[in-house]
Amino acid sequence: MISEIIKRLKLSYLVYNFFHKQSLIHNVPLYKKYGLRKKYYSSISSLDFKGLPPIPQISANAQKIKSSKIFNEIDEDDRNSILSYNQNGYLILKKYLSESEVDNINSDAERLVHSHHVKESYGNRYLQIVKHSKLIQKIASDPKLIELVNILLDGESYLFQSIHFIKGSEQTTHSDSYHMTTYPEGGLLGIWFALE
User: DSSP character for 171?
Assistant: First the structure.
């Protein structure tokens, strides 16, 4: 019973958030705008948005996708994968990174880990490695990739977080939206690069 209450309150998030006011204070005007009675340190979930007016479901515009720069540079399989995004909820680009780019990313990540520029957290995970690697920053800010993501989200995207795994986490199926709620729902898109 007590563990359920603590879980529901998300106590660990509250404590962490309380001591990171400068990083979170910008949310307060948004809470007011949407009529949420929340403090900067409060946790947020999709339940908080239940009373808000519904927003139409986002559906990626096929014409915009077809006119994107990336669409014209990929093979037919990858094009079909992008065009099936609305039905599948995901897409796969098999040749987005070259083998040499993958090797360079792995070398750069290894250098950062061994030089202690990034620290391990949550077992095998290195958060925000993108802030320490110019190579990874370059890939994450590729205008062609950003254009495609903006089309898929029907708005302007923002890189929220990067996680680098030295080896697979073997984590079971899960939903990141539990930890990173968006309004409207569905405004979170994960990009995964296979680096082996």
Answer: P
Q: How far apart are CA 68 and CA 145, in angstroms?
A: 10
- Rounded to whole angstroms, what are the CA distances from 183 to 48, 148, 186, 188? 10, 20, 8, 9
**Whole-number average pLDDT of the chain:** 84
pTM of the model: 0.70
Q: Where are the beta strands (DSSP E) in the chain?
A: 125-127, 163-165
C-beta of residue 91 within 8 angstroms of C-beta of residue 84: yes
**Per-residue pLDDT at 174 exceeds 70:** no
| Neighbour-count burial for 154-174, b at 16+ CB within 10 Å, e otherwise | beebeeeebbbeeeeeeeeee
- Bridge partners, residue 126, by sequence: 164
The candidate with the shortest Cα–Cα distance to 43, out of 16, 19, 4, is: 16
The 10s digit of each residue's pLDDT in 113-142 is 999 888 888 777 888 999 999 999 999 999
For 84, 108, 180, 189, the CA distances from 56, given in Å and listed in that order, are 20, 42, 20, 17
The whole-number pLDDT of residue 55 equals 58
